[in-house]
Amino acid sequence: MPPSLEKLRDIVRTAARDELLPRFADVIRHVKHDGSMVTEADVAMQQRLKSDLARHWPEYDFLGEEMAGHEHEQLTGTTGKGLWCVDPLDGTSNFATGIPYFAVSLALLIDGKQELALVYDPVRDECFMARRGEGAWLNDIVLGAHEPIPPEAIRRCIACVDFKRLAPLLAARLGAQPPYGSQRNFGASSLEWCWLADGRFHLYLHGGQKLWDYAGGSLILAEAGGYACTLEGETAFSYGLAPRSVVAAATPALFSEWKAWIDRNRAPDQT
After folding, report:
1. Which of 18, 55, 91, 107 has the most CB within a 10 Å radius?
2. Across the strands, what pairs with 114?
3. Nearest-CA neighbor of 244 among 189, 215, 207?
4. What digits encode the pLDDT tens for the residues 166-186?
5. Across the beta sheet with 227-229, what order do the strands follow?
6. What stretches of the chain show up as alpha helix (H) in DSSP?
7. What average pLDDT does this structure show over 239-247?
8. Angle at which helices 189-197 and 211-223 pack, to 10 degrees?
């Protein structure tokens, strides 16, 4: 039986409340510079989800960010069996320093395609969900119904840009002559995809994300009516472990204007 998004939401919410929020409260009081608290939270959440998901849906394999590299390669070496792709704590640096912007992300991949996705923000109790071909939701509210933004309004847009993974020329031009109104960088990729889907900002650019960073969020954005691809123009999702860049926008019209500006301002050998 296909997983129920509502059942999945209950499982993730309960696990996050048990495993993440108590440790986050302790981080706020006692920041540990060696990262041991974060490692404990990452591992505890991953183990909890692996156990809970296997109990309800034993037919699917489990890939978690904190697993060893050879396990990642083995699990993604075939597309025949369903696979949970999980980031148990996206936004590790935020969590470690008491910044309340982090999430749990998971996607169910079957035959190398995204079937469903869930990204849960335990601080705000916001659960973003999507099922391929059926739409996306924030808790019980349908995503994608925000006011359309004309492409000429790009200069009034808010952009989420991760500068540190961009090529120097593109980063410099974004800093000197940005095409948007203002810029943010929040530090949890899966949740950034969802905030874009909900229209909390309008443009997105990231130089390199792993499978567990984008597997859930990219489906949620697509089902909410947004659009994304890589800097090279490839599809946003790829069933593999190599890092992938992201160019995305809340609407197709904004995406076209955003991608065109980026293409004009990249180095010749990067186009």
Report:
1. 107
2. 109
3. 207
4. 999 999 999 999 999 999 999
5. 182-184, 158-162, 203-209, 244-249, 227-229
6. 5-19, 21-29, 36-56, 69-75, 92-97, 168-176, 189-197, 211-223, 252-264
7. 96
8. 10
